[in-house]
Specification:
Keywords: Signal. With 491 residues, the protein is an alpha+beta fold. It is built from nine helices and 18 strands.
């Protein structure tokens, strides 16, 4: 009987050693940089560490209890041998059976506890992963007001649990205003313990951070467009140019940084003109081909969006890591003015919208607008939206449309074309031209795991979304655009 117990103790010791070797092997596996830079990992890693500590404490307590039990059994056995002159072998077998039965009961209780913990964890995970079914894959006009969803529908709730567990040290970013939606203003970056992992150190201050995301259902509905008066121009014209299926990308910006390769320090998607790069001129654009119908040689471009769950582009010197996402739908819509008719844009007019450095410059020129299909009346300006399953992320980029009547560009690329006022009217001394609205729809990974390409110091802040346009339409096509808008037609 003593030999049996010694054998059991030896087997237990071997199991503990084997478990330690497996744990060491698992710990030694290091995720790639793009995985480290997943904002969802920043929020969930702290909870995982707490769970691991609790599990280790529970294992240690179980080993201590087993050791105390073995010692008590040894003492009882010695005492029984001293007093056991009247005990026979049958009594000893009964004691052995009782001891075995007690050990089996303890083992069964431990298995039941472990099974309960696993089932509870699976239930919590399943509840966190469930999303409200939301159709909405079709790209809709952001002006539309969808029906309110039932209050008891589940939402993208995984982020609300993750955001309370930041774990990485990061440099504080400026507090930003929230004029367009999300109910929580971004604050300082998450705090936490330092790490010796070089990949994690490289991403700890990269951004975006968990507080840069918001569940779209937490954003209050609002009116998207100004009300048209009797003199307004209600028509629209859509230029069909594709989704950049031909992979026309570069980190240039010939409007803001002409002649400078990698002048943007982030990658752009291009549709329309096939030649656009840092060295584009009016002449080169006019002589190039296009992806647009009806001979529209205009160039339309914007920073790419990336999936941070996929390891790609991890050696980028500007920190734009992750897998590039191609938009599921791109709508380039020219719209009218709420208070007046529109006039034709001059050819080679250059216009920008938004501020690629708004996180450090402040919100004065920021024009980012994020939403989800099915929720287009909910707009967040400084947070990435978390959309329910089946709903696509939307980027809505409105361009200024009040032209000074003389210039095709200006020193700051803004003063020659400005935005209408809150009522939709153009300032005195300017003329309303067709207003370009880009609407880009994306299928992104669930949770806070995607990011916009950006300048390194902007930390992939969603407020930095922006876009650029240069009009290279033939004059006859521009006249068609103006006619459609002023006559209230949809072309």
């Amino acid at each position: 009987m003593t030999s049996s117990r010694r054998m059991a103790a030896a087997m237990s010791a071997l199991a503990v050693v084997a478990s330690g070797l497996v744990s060491a092997a698992v710990i030694g596996v290091t995720p790639a940089r793009a995985d480290h830079c997943d904002p969802a990992e920043q929020a969930s890693q702290g909870q995982q560490q707490n769970n691991n500590r609790q599990r280790r404490n529970g294992d240690q307590q179980g080993q201590d209890d087993q050791q105390d039990q073995n010692q008590n059994q040894g003492q009882d056995q010695g005492q029984n041998q001293d007093q056991g002159q009247n005990q026979d072998q049958g009594q000893g077998q009964n004691d052995q059976q009782n001891g075995d039965q007690q050990q089996n009961d303890q083992q069964q209780g431990g298995d039941q506890q472990q099974g309960g913990d696993q089932q509870q964890g699976q239930d919590q995970q399943q509840n966190g992963d469930q999303q409200a079914p939301q159709g909405g894959a079709k790209l809709l006009d952001p002006a539309a007001s969808p029906e309110a969803a039932p209050e008891d529908e589940q939402t993208a709730s995984t982020f609300s649990r993750r955001r309370n567990n930041p774990t990485r040290t990061a440099t504080p970013v400026p507090t930003r205003n929230n004029p367009g939606g999300g109910n929580a203003s971004p604050t300082a970056s998450p705090s936490g313990s330092a790490t010796n992992d070089p990949d994690e150190a490289a991403c700890a201050d990269l951004g975006p951070f968990p507080e840069d995301f918001v569940d779209i259902r937490q954003v209050a509905p609002q009116r998207v467009n100004a009300r048209f008066n009797r003199n307004g121009s209600r028509g629209t014209f859509v230029s069909q140019c594709g989704r950049n299926e031909n992979k026309h990308n570069n980190p240039d910006n010939f409007i803001v940084a002409p002649g400078v390769s990698n002048g943007a320090h982030h990658l752009h998607d291009y549709v329309g003109n096939l030649s656009t790069d840092a060295f584009s001129t009016d002449e080169s654009l006019a002589g190039a081909g296009t992806t647009c119908r009806l001979g529209d040689k205009s160039t339309y471009f914007w920073p790419v969006l990336r999936n941070r769950k996929v390891d790609a582009n991890d050696n980028d010197p500007d920190g734009n890591v992750g897998q590039q996402l191609t938009a599921r739908a791109v709508q380039l819509q020219f719209r009218g003015n709420a208070s007046s008719r529109v006039v034709a844009m001059p050819r080679f007019l250059r216009i920008i919208t938004g501020d690629a450095k708004a996180a450090t410059n402040g919100p004065a020129n920021a024009k980012a607008a994020w939403s989800c299909t099915g929720f287009q009346n909910r707009i967040t300006t400084d947070k990435y939206p978390l959309c329910p399953r089946g709903s696509l992320v939307l980027r809505i980029l409105d361009f200024p449309s009040c032209w000074d009547g003389q210039n095709t560009d200006s020193a700051n690329h803004r003063t020659h074309v400005v935005f209408p006022d809150q009522n939709g009217a153009c300032p005195q001394g300017t003329r309303a031209v067709p207003q370009l609205r880009m609407t880009l729809a994306y299928s992104v990974p669930q949770g806070p795991s995607y990011a916009l390409d950006a300048f390194p110091e902007q930390k992939h802040n969603p407020v930095t979304d922006h876009a650029d346009f240069a009009n290279v339409m033939p004059d006859r096509l521009m006249q068609t655009v103006v006619s459609c808008i002023n006559r209230g037609r949809r072309c």
